[in-house]
Every structure is written in structure tokens, then in C-alpha cells.
Amino acid sequence: MTNKNSIEQLPDGYLNKTPIFQFILLSCLFALWGIPVSLNDILITQFKSIFNLSDFASALVQSAFYGGYFLIAIPASLIIKKTNYKTGIIIGLAVYIIGCSLFFPASTMATYTMFLAAILAMAFGLSFLETASNTYSSMLGQKKYATLRLNISQNFQPFGAISGVLMGKYLIFQDGTSLHSQVQNLSGDALKAFQLEHLQYTLTPYKYIIILLAVVLLLFILTSYPNCKPTNTANHKVEKASFGETVSYLIKNTSFRNGIIAQFVYVGMQTAVWSFTIRLALALGAHNEREAANFMLYSFICFFIGKFIANVFMTRFNPKLVLFIYSIIGTILLLYVSFASDFSAIYAAILTSVLMGPCWPTIFANNLEVVDKKYVEIAGAITVMSIVGGAVVPAIQGFVSDHLHSMQHAFTVSAICFAIVGLHFLREYLKKDNSPTVV
Questions:
Q1: Widest CA span of the chain, in angstroms?
Q2: Domain tally for the chain?
């Protein structure tokens, strides 16, 4: 006789109930990739001054990071498809640790290229984690609550992002005048000594991250997790599709294709806004990097609050309509950032973060809803790949900043992106069949 309290896997891969400890441990991974996302914003400011980079060159930090996601998402999904989600997570954590460890030789070599290589390697591990965790979170329980579980897991990410900013503010940035003003007065051996000293500060956060990752990796190795893969039964036959068949199907799926474009543009916009918030604060009069980092911290707090506010709205109104309105307000705020003549521009940039929270999980969940189950793993991987927008849009915004000689005016790039996201949600809202579904 089956115990009613026992956790059982159903033929479609979902569970009859959610294993709480396993779900919380899995959700903690979302915080673990929130840390490097916010630390990248710190590194952009640090590297620009230390290596005397243009805005375009400094944005290559994000290009390396999100480019790593793009390169590994499909291989990661194929490995996960042949093994299981837990294996993908363990591989991801191990590679994440390797990437963090590469910061140590990079600081000794003191070359920007080596740091980019370390960030790329770290992103390889994070791509495994995201490819496995987003889909796995949706599978750990009853099917009707799949989107809710993914949104709950996504709520852990801001905690990581806030932790990353605090580590950057207190462990990487130092008191005193801004790095840019200090570097301007140095040359020769004095400049080299200054560069090496400040590059050493970048190591401290990654020492703590490596320790944390090792603990989480051990917990995952020791914790039993359900497979959550569809199984054959008398009443349920698992259909399998080849990689080529899956890609052909997804290309022809208009809703999925539009979702990929929206995710690409959204992640690019979010990354660009956060990448240049500290620089914007410095340009508008912040005393030094440590003071400017406060505005990045406020942005992530707003991001966290915005997720909860959005969840309330989306339970009462159509989520696509809510996100369309969010996108329009966000576009207006970013246009204000671009052309305001005083420090209020930085507060408008911070408020934009309130509107970003629900976009990623909603687009991700919708993308999985519109594909047949046999294609879901590759569909999830391609959706993760679409965050390569974070590699492209910040570089474009940096390029515009260099050529307009205005950090502020370059925020029009992000404003255009948010408007495109809004059009996507409007188009989805206006579809005839607009009833809510779950993955």
C-alpha cells in the first residue's frame, strides 16, 4: 500500500508533492549565480580604471560572461538529457569553482584578457546550473504549480545579487578618491604597483565564493534527488526526439521564437542598465566607487521588492498585460535617465529595477508552455542561450557611450530594448487564446 505522505514521481516526470529540503537547496543555486552577476557590475568599474579601458572594452566583461552561457547551454542540455538534472548541477558547481580559481593567476598576470578567460570559464559552470535548475525547479512537484515554483526559486536570486554588491563594495572598492582620479596621477612602476595592489582586492570575494560552492557541491552529492524524467507506462508513452528534429520544430514555433527574441532583448537591457549604474553615479557626482556602489545595492533591493509586487498583480490580472504596462513605464524611466540634467537620473535608473523582476521567469515559463514535452529540455537550453543578449546589448551601449561621449545618452539603447519587450507582451496579450497555462 502506498504511503500518502511519500513523494512519488508521476509518468510525466512531475512529482505528487514537492520535497521541501531538495527544493530549497535547489533554489539556493539561484542565489549562487546572482552573486557573480552583480560582481560583474563591480568589475566593469574596477577594470575600466585599472586597465584604462573604453566603455565598450569594459563591457566585454559581460560579453565573456554571457557568451559563456551561450556556448555551453546546448552541450549542457544534451548531457542533462542523457544523465539527469542532478548530474548537470554537480558538473556546473565544479566548473564554477574552477572559474573562480582562475582569478588567482589572473591577478598575478595582471592582464585584462586573463580575467575575461576566468569569467568565461565561470560562465560555463553557471550555464550548466541555469540550464538544469530552471527546468528542474518547475518539475519538483505538481504540474499545476510549476510556474509558481520557478518564480519562488527566482526570488532567491536577488539575495545573491545583493550579497555580490556588498562584497564588491567592501572587499573590492576602497575608501578615498575615485580610482580614475588616482590612476591619472600615476605612471611607470608606480602605476604597475597600484594596478597589482587593486587587482588583489578582486580576489577576496572569490575566496569566500569558492568555500560556499564547495559546501553546496558536497550537499548536492550527498542529497538524494528524484529523476524527474518522463517514464514509459501502460498509459503513458515517452516520446523522444532527435536534436535535429527538435531544432526544426522550435524554429517553426512562432510563439517560442518570439519568446527567444524577447528574452534576448530583456536580458541585454537588464544587464546594460546594471552594468553602467555605478559608472552613471560616478559621472553624476558620486565621490568614489564605494559610494557609487550604494546605488547598485538599491537597484537590487528594488528588483527584489518588484518581484513580490509583480506576483500580487499577476495573480489578479493577466500577467502579460501587467508586464506590458511594466515595460512601458520602464521605457519612460530609461528615457528620463538618458536626458535628465541632474542626479535624479540615477534614481530613475534604480526604479527601473522594480519593473524587471518578473520578466525573465515569465518569458522562460511561457517558452516551455508552448512546446511539446519531448522538446522541453532543448527548448529550455535555447531559452538560456538567449541570455547572450547580456553579451551584446551592454557592448552596444558602451560603444554608443564612447561615440556620444555621454554615459547618460547611451541609456537610450536600454530604453529601446524595454520598449521591444513591451511590444512582445502586448502581442501575446492580444492573442485570441490567452488563457493561463502552466508547464
A1: 79
A2: 1
